Amino acid sequence: MTYNIKLRRFEYEDAQALADFCNDEDLQRYLLLCRLPYTVDDAHAFIKYAKDCQKSGGEQCFAITLDDNVIGCISYTIQSGCHCNSASVGYYISKEYWHNGIMPIAVKNLLEIIFQNSAINRVFAEIFAENTPSARVLEKCGFVREGYLRKGVSKDGIMHDAILYALVR
Length: 169
Hints:
The chain is α+β, with helices and mostly antiparallel strands. The mean pLDDT is 95. The chain is globular, with a radius of gyration of 15 Å. 32% of the residues lie in helices and 35% in strands.
């Protein structure tokens, strides 16, 4: 199946769609910085954050769109110091679109943006160890599993194991 998947910057008009799909417990399971309930005000605050970061050079957030409808979020953050040639990536998509091959397209689009607009030569992602669908996305995009991080990430005060994946240009 062919999808019209594009990445674009968030607009405040996207807040309702973002709030709608971010209010899903299954989606929230692997998101570190979101909490339930996720309101339109929360979405507006996130969009403001994304716009501020775009200007300051911080985390670069993009709306994932399907036929111009916002269905997810994907971002990258260039690391600093001795890791300045690396960028971390993160992403999520509305549960309605899980398991349809959409996220690998979005990740590949993001990699194109990163590699065309920066000197980054290493892109990495840390995912919850039990998040096998995300592992499959990364592997489909050429990422290689580099390590297992025992108790590597904290969510809601609980430590979880994580897996480190990376792609080197």
